[in-house]
Amino acid sequence: MNNLTGTVHVVDDDDAVRLALDSLLRSMGLQVRTHATVEAFLARPLPDVVPSCVVLDVRLPGVSGLDLLRASARTAHTELPPTIVVTGHGDIPMSVQAMKAGAIEFLSKPFREADLLRAIEDALRLDSQQHIQRAERAEWRQRYASLTRREHEVLHLIVAGRLNKQIAAELGVSEVTVKLHRAQVMRKMGQDTLADLVRGMTRLGDGERTTGVHPDTPPQAPPYTKV
Fold first, then answer.
1. Could you give the domains of the chain?
2. Longest dimension (CA), the chain
3. Cβ atoms 65, 142 nearer than 8 A
4. Which residues of 190-202 are buried (b: 16+ CB within 10 A; e: fewer)?
């Protein structure tokens, strides 16, 4: 617990709670930013600091903590760091709603300092892991975007388990040409084995892994329009 590092955003409308948490967390070596409302929290852009987490009260004036969590779950534009929900009026249904909306922990006031610090430690560790995963996905997308349309087609057929001769027949090219494209795909994607390539493709979202559609291909008009 004494080796905690990172930034904690405390969103609570109780002045005494904010002051107490600010003092406690700073004594543990953490950076702290406090906010009395969700609106105040959103008005200050989140610094690009890793690791970080949010300690969020559910019942707040104006936009509630649950509203913020639900908005974050719907769009990446309001994506939150790992969030710990706290409330003085906790009940099981509210706990379930908070967890479904993306909270990683739910604590009812008054909570033990040790429980909060343990939850914060878990949240900061999770944010560090997610940062690494986001960086890996960004690198993978960059490599994926560097492929030509033909290499893109070959990549998806490789991942689908097709043999070189099957890919050649499907694309109407020679097997030698497929081997050349395959080598280029492996080089550009930075992979040494087929297993690594398949595992790496899981880093892309479903929309980015659409078979046979190159990232630069414009959308096609639908074959018909329903009246």
1. 7-138 (3.40.50.2300), 146-209 (1.10.10.10)
2. 74
3. no
4. ebeeeeebeebbe
The predicted-structure confidence for 67-126, as pLDDT tens digits, reads as follows 898 888 776 545 789 999 998 766 678 778 888 888 999 998 888 999 999 999 999 999
- What burial class does residue 124 get, using C-beta atoms within 10 Å of its C-beta: 0-12 exposed, 13-18 middle, 19+ buried? buried
Number of H helices, E strands in the chain: 9, 5
Q: Are strands 31-35 and 7-11 parallel, antiparallel or unpaired?
A: parallel
Contacting residues for 152 by C-beta, under 8 A, at least 6 apart: 212, 213, 214, 215
- pLDDT value, residue 219: 37
Q: Kindly give the pairing relationship between strand 105-108 and strand 7-11.
A: unpaired
For residues 95, 98, 103, 106, the Cα torsion angle rounded to the nearest 10 degrees is -20
Mean pLDDT of 161-167: 93
Cα(201)–Cα(204) distance, integer angstroms: 6
Yes or no: say if 99 and 107 are a contact pair by the CB < 8 Å rule.
no
Closest-CA residue to 196 (of 150, 136, 142, 129): 136
What backbone phi and psi angles, to 5 degrees, belong to 86?
Answer: -130, 150
Q: Which residue has the higher pLDDT, 75 or 6?
A: 6
